[in-house]
Amino acid sequence: MLLELHPLITPAWGQIFWGGIVFIILLFLLKKFAWGPMLSAVNEREKAIEESVNLAQKTQAEMKQLQAQNENLLKEARAERDKMIREASETSKQVIADAKQAAKGEADKIIKDAQVVINSEKQAAVAELKTQMAAFSLEIAEKVIKGELSSDDKQKALAEKLADSISVN
Amino acid sequence: MKKFFGLILATVFSLSALASGGDKEFNAAEHAIHHALDAHEIHIADAITIPLPVILWTENGLVMFMSSEFHHDDSGHHIVEKDGMSFVKLHEKIYQLEAGAHGIEFDAEGHPTNAKKITTDFSITKNVFAMFLVAFFLLFVFIKSAKNYKKHDTLSPKGIAKWTEPGVVFVQDIAKENIEADKFRKFVPYLLTLFFFIFFGNLLGLIPFISNPNMTGSISITILLAAITFFIQMKNSRKTYWLHIVDPLGNSMPLIAKIPLYVILLPIEIAGIFIKPIALLIRLFANITAGHIIVVSLIAIIFVQTSGWWGFLSVPMTLFISVLELLVAFLQAYIFTMLAAMYIGSAVESAHH
């Protein structure tokens, strides 16, 4: 040999030969009986865990959605109730107002009618009174005139008085 | 690299030179390097060794015997006769003596003159044995883990899978980050095998009582791993990858401006194809081997100084480095796998960007 290598860095064919055989056989046996089952189990588990986590996350999201839906529903119901109450109160107010209005109208009408009746009664009464008064006046006048005209003096005095009043005018 | 080793060698040599003085010299550098090298037996303690089979392919066919037949001799003096051939072991390499030779002879530099190193040595060495251990351990641990998923529901890992699953998912994530999403699955089994082979190999090398096999710090093994990675990268490479190499600037400037640049850029890009896996194999080899050499060198302080008192310095430092090596064991496995994923990812990229 031209170059004498140090024994530490001199490859030995025997070791390479046995090493090759051992390593190749080891690789095939381990691949078939150890790495295969172990890796498939590990990766299957990884997949299962991933799926479970995904499922959990999905369920959680669904739950959240459901909760939101419930809340919305509740909110809507509450709004509906408020609206109904408001409407009912408005209706009742309206009814009361209407009733008031109607009552007022009726009362006004009754008052007006009464006034009409009273007026007509009053007029009738006044008319009656007037008639009565006229009758009384006539009677009184008759009685007065009868008294005035009962003597000549008196008739003369009256005539003078009347004539005075005329002449003055 | 050579500088790095030179530095370590120089340090340890100077240490041992300081310590020597007597005629029986303890060569710490040789000891450290020897420890990081492959061996034909597993040395647990003096006189406690596990022999390993020696398998040689010679001109007369296959020769097999146990390494114990060398009687722990590593200097080339104990001759083993098989099928009319004579073998000796020198620095953990098997040499075949020339016909008619009755003993090994050395030249002035210490190289044998009448023996030939056998390159077709298929022995079950310490590293090969460590590789088998790692392979069996990986098969045991991960097939057992995989069975857990069949027995129980897949909702959570049970038993040993509790420990292995994070690692598996970790490597899968490395692939996911570096390879496009629709293609990464194909490469996950390779990257997993690669990661755990290196990681467990690194960890096995940290166990002292089985003589720290430096399997993942063996250049042969790192060459093999880088070569397999390179092969997978090339096999799955697409048009975009090659376009990036032959036309790295794309449509960013007119052709006339590109020509002078490409005189420099093209060779760099083409060299880069090969430099990447080479850097990969050197990084792992150097990091793990350095760790082994440092540990042995620190322990060697005691022997260089020939005083047990030095243990108070040497042992805590060794412990510290060993703990650091635990981190390195993981880190290097991660870096190798991550870069392999990155290289594969760059090769399979689609043209969309």
Percent of residues of chain A in beta strands? under 5%
Radius of gyration of chain A: 66 Å
Assembly status: heterodimer
Major sheet of chain A: none
Q: Percent helix among the residues of chain A?
A: over 70%
Low-confidence stretches of chain A: none
The biggest sheet of chain B amounts to: 4 strands, antiparallel
Rounded radius of gyration of chain B (Å): 25 Å
- Report the largest inter-chain contact: A-B, 36 and 56 residues
Secondary-structure content class of chain A: mainly alpha
Count helical runs of chain A: 2
| CA-CA gap between termini of chain A | 188 Å
Work out the count of structural domains of chain B: 2
Proportion of residues in helical segments of chain B: 55-70%
Order of helices and strands of chain A: HH
Strand content of chain B: 5-15%
List keywords for this structure.
heterodimer; A: 169 residues; mainly alpha; rod-shaped; B: 353 residues; alpha+beta; 2 domains; four-stranded antiparallel sheet; two-stranded antiparallel sheet; 9 helices; 8 strands; 11% strand
Can you characterise this structure?
With 169 residues, chain A is an all-alpha fold. Chain A has helices spanning 13-148, 152-168. Chain A has one domain (20-168). Chain A has two helices and no strands. Chain A starts with 12 loop residues before the first helix and ends with a helix. In chain B, strand 6 (85-90) and strand 7 form a beta hairpin. Chain B is globular, with a radius of gyration of 25 Å. A four-stranded antiparallel β-sheet of chain B has the order 5-6-7-8, with no helix packed on it. Chain B has a two-stranded antiparallel ribbon with strand order 1-2. In chain B, strands 3-4 form a two-stranded antiparallel ribbon. Chain B is of the alpha+beta class. Classes of the chains: A mainly alpha (169), B alpha+beta (353). At the A-B interface, helix 1 of A face helix 3, helix 4, helix 5 and helix 6 of B.
